[in-house]
Each structure stands twice: as structure tokens, then as C-alpha cells.
Amino acid sequence: MHYGKGEEPDKEGTLKYAAFSLFGQEFGAMDSAHEHHFMFNEAISFIINCDTQEEIDYYWERLSAVPEAEQCGWLKDKFGVSWQVVPASMGKMLRGDDRERIERVTQTFLVMKKLDIAKIQEAYDKK
Predict the structure, then answer these.
(1) In a shared domain, residues 31 and 45
(2) Which of 31, 75, 84, 91 could cysteine-pair with 64, CB 3.0–4.6 Å?
(3) What is the CATH number for 87?
(4) Cα–Cα distance between 48 and 33 in angstroms, integer?
(5) How many CA atoms within 13 Å lie on the side-chain side of 37?
(6) Dihedral over alpha carbons 115, 26, 81, 114 (to 10 degrees)
(7) Would you say 10 and 33 are in contact if contact means Cβ atoms under 8 Å apart?
């Protein structure tokens, strides 16, 4: 969708709204010449589920731009957008009835910045 005549301060013909898809995930984007008093914040983040440590390292290296924002698999990119780069197996590790196991896994990843799959798996497997 584009802005039409009479929608000032937006210029006629400029982009108003766009919908797009990335890897099957639908997104919407809007633009406006009006002054806004907000930025990206942690209320919205993108999740990247990774099967290997190499994948985690790959995305972390390319996206992380604010080291002080790194925590528990979360990072911020150069635009201030929050991302969660996590093992795909994390959801499984945090479900179930074994409260002790869930607590071990949680305490293991809480002290990490970039998540380490081997260490988290070790905490999960510990008897």
C-alpha cells in the first residue's frame, strides 16, 4: 500500500504498508513521516532455532552488535532489534515433569551470553 494524496506529512506514492514472507513466516512493515517517540525494544524479538553450535555461532557473530545486551541467548543487532539464538532442542529440555532437570538446564543457560549447546545438553543429561 502507498500513501495517497492528502495523507500529509507522508508524500504521495511512498510506502505505507507492506506484507512479506521470510522462510514461511509472515511479516508486516509500516512507514510514516509522522514523528514517533519509540524505538525497537525487547517486547518484540525474533527467534532463530539452531540445530548445531556452528549455527548458533554463525548467527551470533553476524547479528550481535550490542555486547552489553547479550544475555541467555538474546542479542541486539545494529538496528536495536532483539533476537533469541537458541538450540532447537531447548523447548524439549524445558518441558516435562522433572523439575530438578528443568532447574539444572535453566541455571546453566542463565549465566551464558551466547548459548553453548554441549553445556546445556550436559545439564539436561545429568542424573
Answers:
(1) no
(2) 75
(3) 3.10.180.10
(4) 31
(5) 0
(6) 10
(7) yes
Distance from the Cα of residue 18 to its chain's centroid? 21
Query: Which residues, in sequence order, are bridge partners of residue 71?
Result: 74
The C-alpha atoms of residue 118 and residue 60 are separated, in whole angstroms, by 16
Please check the confidence at residue 125 and state whether its pLDDT lies above 80. yes
Which residue range(s) make up the domain with 4? 1-35
Q: How many domains does the chain divide into?
A: 2
Our measurement of the distance from residue 12's CA atom to the centroid of its chain's CA atoms, rounded to an integer in Å, reads 34
Q: How many residues does the chain have?
A: 127
Residue 25 banded pLDDT, cuts 50, 70, 90: confident
- List Cβ neighbours of 86 (8 Å cut-off, separation of 6 or more): 47, 48, 49, 50, 56, 73, 115
- Round the CA-based radius of gyration of the chain to a whole number and report it: 20
Same domain membership, residue 15 and residue 71: no
Verify that 47 and 80 share a domain, yes or no. Answer: yes
Both 115 and 89 in a single domain?
yes
Same domain? For 92 and 63 the reply is yes
